[in-house]
């Protein structure tokens, strides 16, 4: 909703600079505890410490950066080089040049400051109330973005801002530099492709398909897409040009193929988000509903004119459902490989836009009432407390606390695993597997593992590995569906442990029996099993004996040898 021409926003440019400065200062304060505590802070495990940084580290230390796409990587399941990041990705080079943890911190800083500034400038284009613009930008910047998609989500507002500038023929050289950096520091097939698709539909709806205003935008999107596809040449080769490689993703099964299940999934994505892309928009539902109830005509007008992307997103949600159904066809296996649900990566951007419009309405028509200020304060506090680091401060009895608060230093426990490595000798001379904790921990510490977390590895390896745990999978339908229908976590799984991959020392857990196919374990080169739980008995055709135990304040690791 536009603001009156008499509003100070039109006559006082210093207001913009003041809000920009204050917003960045708040983002800095938000990050300060993480920057001060460093490795003693909780950084989040899922899709964070359990995967991507390990891929970076192995690529660098193993000298695989420019290796042949099909060269096996013995440190990580023997997976081919193409399973890991492309060598043009700026996020990888941050890790290569700075080291693992400094790069983690640097990425965190870049992502959150980028999020605030890019959303701040985009919202200027709609000339909403400056306070609403400030709050919408701050909401977007405080969300817990995945570090390993780089600025894919955080810089979406900037990319759309540049498209708007292109429409008006008002681009500047720094904007083109920004688009190049975005392409090099983002994930095309998981995020950017949806942003470009949404932008295309937006400008077609606004100006018409063949409008000359849209031509520069089309050319820019096409150029950026071609550059991104060129960066992913290894992936394209494996999918389209190499008949000898089949990804485990061809067996991917959607979580649901029912319309009701799809709607529930997407409601969750919109109101809360996914593990890699959070929205926490449920905190702001009351003002949205109040806006709709008190000004229904204005709400409809705003949603149809200003928030057209939401309508497009709804169409794409339906399309996602149809693609999930079609992916079950044997003749359309490629649809299984690609996760169309990643349209949810647009929801933080859309949520911030909707929130800004609603707040602008309240502030302009009703003023900044104390009740609104109080509600917004509580809501923003909620956004902060729901991020992994701040949630770790909450009491364990809190319903939103993190039950197992493991810091970066505790998670990887380098001294502990160095003791294990010293006991066993050079890791290249044997292979291990892990139970009860993420294999990434062992990989980070230099071990060569049979198990691991990879989003793309050979289907043949998945089938070989499944033989190891087939008996355990048959005892638990949840983990069976999880492994067979996804499989990116190629982990040893136990019926009783389920999907718990962080069983720390204080849980003091023992499993009465573990049914492992030890003959297959030996055939795959395995010699040792590291477990964070004591195994009372092995159902195994080979001799298994407990070599030793190793422990620190976080982990107690049982070292078993299988002969």
| Strand content bin | 5-15%
Taking Cα atoms only, what radius of gyration do you get, to the nearest Å?
Answer: 25 Å
Helicity, as a percent range: 40-55%
Largest beta-sheet details: 4 strands, mixed
Compute the average pLDDT. Answer: 88
Tally of DSSP β-strands:
12
Helix tally? 26
Number of domains: 2
Q: Which stretches are poorly predicted, pLDDT < 50 over at least 5 residues?
A: 1-11
Q: Order of strands side by side in the largest beta sheet?
A: 3-8-12-11
Q: Briefly note the structural class of the backbone.
A: alpha/beta
* Distance from first to last alpha carbon: 72 Å
User: What multimeric state do the chains show?
Assistant: single chain
Global outline: globular
Can you walk me through this structure?
The protein has helices at residues 8-11, 13-37, 45-49, 52-61, 90-98, 100-124, 130-141, 156-167, 173-184, 188-207, 215-231, 233-241, 259-271, 285-294, 296-305, 308-326, 334-337, 347-366, 370-385, 388-391, 408-412, 414-424, 439-444, 459-473, 477-485, 518-523, and strands at residues 72-73, 79-80, 431-435, 452-453, 489-490, 510-511, 514-515, 526-531, 534-535, 538-539, 544-551, 556-562. With 563 residues, the protein is an alpha/beta fold. It folds into 2 domains: 85-368, no CATH class; 409-562, no CATH class. The strands form 5 sheets. The protein has a 4-stranded mixed beta sheet with strand order 3-8-12-11. Strands 1-2 form a two-stranded antiparallel ribbon. β11 and β12 form a beta hairpin. α9 (173-184) runs parallel beside α11, α10 runs antiparallel to α11 and α10 (188-207) packs across α16 (308-326). The longest helix has 25 residues, at 13-37. The protein is globular. The model is unreliable at 1-11 (pLDDT under 50).
């Amino acid at each position: 909703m536009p603001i009156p021409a008499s509003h100070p926003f039109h006559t006082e440019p210093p207001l913009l600079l003041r809000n920009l400065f204050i917003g960045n200062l708040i983002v800095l304060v938000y990050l300060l505890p993480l920057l001060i505590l460093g490795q003693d802070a909780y950084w989040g495990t899922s899709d964070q410490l359990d995967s991507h940084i390990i891929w970076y580290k192995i690529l660098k230390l193993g000298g695989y950066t420019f290796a042949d796409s099909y060269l096996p990587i013995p440190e990580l399941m023997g997976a081919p080089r193409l399973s890991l990041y492309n060598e043009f990705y700026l996020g990888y080079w941050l890790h290569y040049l700075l080291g693992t943890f400094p790069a983690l911190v640097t990425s965190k800083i870049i992502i959150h400051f980028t999020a605030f500034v890019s959303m701040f400038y985009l919202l200027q284009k709609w000339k909403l109330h400056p306070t609403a613009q400030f709050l919408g930008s701050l909401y977007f910047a405080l969300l817990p973005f995945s570090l390993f998609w780089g600025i894919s989500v955080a810089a979406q507002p900037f990319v759309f801002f540049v498209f708007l500038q292109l429409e008006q023929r008002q681009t500047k050289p720094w904007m083109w530099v920004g688009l190049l950096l975005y392409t090099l520091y983002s994930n095309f097939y998981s995020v950017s492709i949806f942003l470009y698709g949404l932008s295309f539909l937006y400008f077609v709806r606004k100006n018409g398909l063949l409008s000359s205003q849209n031509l520069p935008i089309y050319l820019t999107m096409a150029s950026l897409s071609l550059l991104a596809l060129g960066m992913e040449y290894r992936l394209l080769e494996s999918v389209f040009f190499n008949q000898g490689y089949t990804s485990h993703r061809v067996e991917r099964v959607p979580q649901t193929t029912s319309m009701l299940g799809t709607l529930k999934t997407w409601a969750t994505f919109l109101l809360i988000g996914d593990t890699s892309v959070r929205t926490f928009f449920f905190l702001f539902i009351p003002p949205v509903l109040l806006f709709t109830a008190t000004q229904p005509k204005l709400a409809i007008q705003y949603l149809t004119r200003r928030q057209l992307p939401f309508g497009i997103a709804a169409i794409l949600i339906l399309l996602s459902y149809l693609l999930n159904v079609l992916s079950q066809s044997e003749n359309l296996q490629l649809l299984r490989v690609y996760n169309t649900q990643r349209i949810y990566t647009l929801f933080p951007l859309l949520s911030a836009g909707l929130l800004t419009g609603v707040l602008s309405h309240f502030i302009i028509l009703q003023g900044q009432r104390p009740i609104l200020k109080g509600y917004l304060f509580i809501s923003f506090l909620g956004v902060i407390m729901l991020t992994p680091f701040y949630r770790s401060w909450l009491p364990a009895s809190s319903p939103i606390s993190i039950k197992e608060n493991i810091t970066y230093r505790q998670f990887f426990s380098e001294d502990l695993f160095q003791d294990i490595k010293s006991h066993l000798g050079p890791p290249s001379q044997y292979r291990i597997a892990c139970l009860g904790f993420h294999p990434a921990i062992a990989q980070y510490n230099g071990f060569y593992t049979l198990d691991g977390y990879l989003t793309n590895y050979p289907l043949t390896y998945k089938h070989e590995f499944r033989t190891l745990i087939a008996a355990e999978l048959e005892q638990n339908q949840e983990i069976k569906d999880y492994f067979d229908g996804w499989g990116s976590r190629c982990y040893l799984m136990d019926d009783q442990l389920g999907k718990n991959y962080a069983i720390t020392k204080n849980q003091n857990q023992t499993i009465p029996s573990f049914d492992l196919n030890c003959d297959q374990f030996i055939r795959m080169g395995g010699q040792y099993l590291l477990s964070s739980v004591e195994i009372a008995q092995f159902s195994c055709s080979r001799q298994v004996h407990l070599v030793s135990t190793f422990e620190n304040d976080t982990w107690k690791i049982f070292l078993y040898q299988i002969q």
